[in-house]
Amino acid sequence: MGRYIIRRILYMLVVILVVSFITFGLMHSVPGGPFDKEKSLPAEIIANLEKRYHLDQPLWKQYLSYLNDVFVPHIAHEKPKGLDVADDYLIDIKITDTFWIRWMNFGPTFSSRSRSVNDIFRQQLPVSVQLGTLALIIAIIIGVPLGIISALKQNTIYDYLGMSIAIFGVSVPVIVLGPLMIWIFGVTLKWLPPTGWGSKPPYIFGFLPTNLGWDYWKYALMPSVALGLGSSAILARLTRASLLQVIREDYIRTARAKGVKERNVIVGHALKNSLIPVVTILGPMMAGLVTGTFVTELTFGIPGMGKYFVTSITNRDYPVIMGTILLYAVFLVVANLLVDIMYAYLDPRIRYD
Amino acid sequence: MRSKFFVLAGLLIAVSMILGACQPAAVPTPETIIQTIIVEGEVQEVVVTATPAPVVKPEQMKVLTLNMGPGDIPTIDPSLGTDTSSIQIVAETFIGLTRQDEVTNLVEPGMATTWDSVVNEDGTETITFHLRNDVTWVRYNGSTVEQVLDCDGNPRIVNANDFYYGIMRTLAPATASQYAYVLGMSMVGANDYNSGETDDPSTVGAEVIDDFTIALTFIEQAAYNPAIAGMWIAYAEPSWLIDGDDCTDARGDKWTETGFFQGYGPYTLKEWVHDSTITLVKNPFWVATDNIPAPKIEEVTWTMLDASPAMAEYEAGNIDTVAIPLADMDRVKADPVLSAQYVVAPDFCTYFYGFNTQAPVVNDVRVRRALSMAVDRQSLIDNVLKGNQEPARWFSRPGLAGAPTMEDHPDLGIGYDVTAAKAELQSYLDEVGKTAAELDLTLMFNTSEGHRKIAEAIQQMWKDNLGVDVKLVNQEWAVYLKTIKGADTPQIWRLGWCLDYPDANNFIRENFGPNGSANPWKDGKPFGGAMYNNPDFFAGLLDAAREQDPKVRVDKYAALEETLVSTDAVIIPIYWYTRNTLTKPYVTRTFSTGGHEYIEKWDIDMDAKP
To answer: Which residue of A has its CA nearest to B86?
Structure first.
C-alpha cells in the first residue's frame, strides 16, 4: 500500500505539470489580454504594465519562471519583507535567522493590485472549503440514507417519496432554491441573515473558523443546505441503484441461505459493497464543492473562491487562472487517491500491492 | 484499522472544535470609541486638542450600510484606481487639490483653497495651488482613529510634498498606473517620464513652491485642468508608509491593507475584509469646510453583493440604500412602500453603437443616418431596458461641464424619425441600385444577455422601419475588444462610456479625437473603431477645450455633437444611463451623478430608524 501511494503521488506531480502546461498554453492562445479595456490604454501604459508583470518576456520564459516560482523551493538569507505582491510565498519556513526556505509563489493578481494569488488562497479558499465540506456532509447525511431506504423498500411509498425528493433536488438548482430560501427565511421570517459568511481571517490551521457559535451557523445554514441538497439527490439515486444491484448478487443470496440475519446481510455485506460507486463520485464531488461554487457564493454573498474561476478567465488574469486551475487539479487528484484507498477498505477483492 | 481510523477522525474533530471554541476569547474584537475632537488651525503651526467625549452607546451610533456590487474592490491605492468602487473609497479617504460637487460636478476647493492660472508664452498653462495647512494624516489603530506622527512625534500635516510624491508615484513607470495616461496627456513632461523616455523628475511640470503651495504646468490651457488636478491619481500619498523612513517600516504594495492604511479625508479605512465588506470610520481630525463638512455618520460599510442578494438585504433592513435589480423594477413600482423610497438619478454614462465609417455600405453617411433615425430609443427604454434611462440624442451626457443639455439645445442631435430615415436610405439605394433587403450589414456586441436583448430589439426596428436585415454577431469581451480596436472592426459595434472627470472633453475628444478610445489610430491613420478622420472636427475639439467662456464652450460642443451624430453620423447614441435606487426613509442623502457618493453630506435620523 505504501509503495502504491508513493507511486501515485509521483504520478500526481506529472498530472499537475501537464495541467499547468496545457492551461498556460490555452490561456495565452485565447485572443485578448489582461489590459484590454473598454477605454483603450495608450501603448506606453500597456508597456509599463506588461513590464511590471513580465508579460513582455517570451512565453517559454514566462512559463519556466512560473514553474520555478511555484514548484521549486527557494532560499532567502534574510527575513522576507513582503513589500512586493509578486514576492509572496505560500510556505515560508524559518530555519535560522539567515536561512529561510520559501515555496510556492503563485504570483500577483492583475485585477487586485495589493493582493497576490496566495492571498486569495489564504482568505477566500478557507471559506469555500468550509462551505463545501458542510454541503458535502449534508449531501451524505441526506443522500445515502435516502437511497438506502428507497432501495430496501423498493416500489413502496417510501421509495417514491425518497426518489421524488431526489428528483426535486436535482431539478431545482441553487439559482432557484437560493433566492427562495433567502426570501422565506431571510426577508419574510427574518430568522437568518439573507447573505454573508460568519467567519473571516485568520483561520485555524489556515481553514477552520475561529467561532463555531450561532453567529457562524446562522450564515452557514442556508447556503450549505442549498448546495448540499443538489448533491444529496445525486448520491441518493446512486446509492439506491447500486444497493438494488448488490442485493441481487449471489453472495447476498448465499448469506441469506446461511441464515444470517437480514440486518447483518444488509449492513455487513450489501451496504459496504454498494458504496463503491458512491465513493467514486464523492471524490470529484468533493473537489468541486470545496474549491468554490460560483452560483451559490454569488447568491448568498459568500466571499469564497468560486467567482475567481469565472472572473479570472474573463479578465485574462493569468496568474489567477493558473492558480485556480492548479488548485482544482490538486484537489481532484488527491480526492481520487483517497477514493482509491477507500476502495481497498470497502471491497476486500481490491488490492494494490 | 477501522477503529483506529475512526478514533483518529474523532480526535481531529474534537480538537478542532475545542480550538474553535477557545478562539474567540483569544482574539478580542476591537471596540469602537467615538471621540469628539476640537481642532484649531493657525498659520504653519497647528494646535490639535483632543477631548474625548462620553462613549456613545452602540445602538445610538450612526452606521450606514451600502452595497458596492459583487467582487473585491480592485484597489484603494489612489495611484492605481480605475473603477467606480476603488474611486468611491479613495474619494472619501483622500481629498484632491480640487474637488467636484457630486451633484453639479462643478469644481470646488479641495485641499487647495485657491488657485491661480498663468498662460505661459509657449501656450502651456501653469496653475498654482494654495493648500490648506490644517489637515493631518490619520490612521485607524484597531480601536480608534489617531493622527499619524512624524519621527519627531509631531502630527504629519498634509502638504505640497505629499501631493508631489503622489503625482510622481502615479507617473513612475514602475508603478504601472493605468490612469497615469490622464496626467500624461495633460501635464507637461508627464508622458515622457511615464514612458521612461527620461528618468529626470524635474522634466515633469510639477513643482513644490513651498510646504503649502504646488504649481502644475499643463500642456494646453483648458477649462478642465483644475478638474484633472483634483483626480484621484493626483492625491497626496504617504511616502513614509510606502517607501519607509527613519521611523516607519516600508509597506510597498501592501500599504492599503487594514491596520496600515493612512489617509486624510473625512473618513478613513477601518477594515477591509477582501471580497466581503469594506468599512470606513469617521475621521474626527477632519476640519470641515463649506463644501466638505464633518461627517455625521460614524461608520460606513459597503457590502460586495450581487444585485439580487443586495435587494434581499435591503428588504430585510440590513442595507440602507441599494440599486434596484432589473427583475425587481416592476414590483418596486407597484409596491406602495418601496415606490416611496424609489429615486431615479442620472448616471454619467452613454450607451452607443459605433460605425466603421470606412466599411462597405456604412461608409455612406446616408445609411448611417438612416440606421440611427430608425432606432426608437424611447420604446427600447420602455419595453426592453425598463430602467428609466434617457433617450440619447448625442454623445456627451448632459450635466457634464461643456456638454449641451436638453433645455438649452432641445433640437440638437438625432432622434427617432422613420420618415426621414426611409428617405435617407432610399436616396442611397437608388444610387447603388439595390433594395434594402440586399444590404449586407453586421452588428457586433460583446456576449451578454443585456446587450443581446438591446441588439435584437434594434435589429427588429431596422427590419420593421427600413426593411434592412442586420446580422448579429457576439464575441466574448476581451476577444471583442481586440476585434473592434483592430483592422477587422465590424460595420456596427457596441460600446459604453462613463466619465473619468466631468467634462465634455472626457467624452467626445477622448473617444472620437485622433487615437481616441473609440477611434484608435496607428501610424497616423485610423485603425479600428470608428475609423473616423475629420480634421475640422478634430480642430474643433481642441478649440472647444481651450474656450474659457462657459456659454460659448457649450455652443462649440453642441456644434461638434451635431457633426458626430448627425452630419457625419459616426455613432448611434442610444441612451444615457440612470441609477434606480431605493433609500430607507430615515437616510438624508445626496444623489451623486459622477458615480461616487460623498457620505460626509449624508445623515441618519436615529429616531426614525426602526
So the answer is: A112
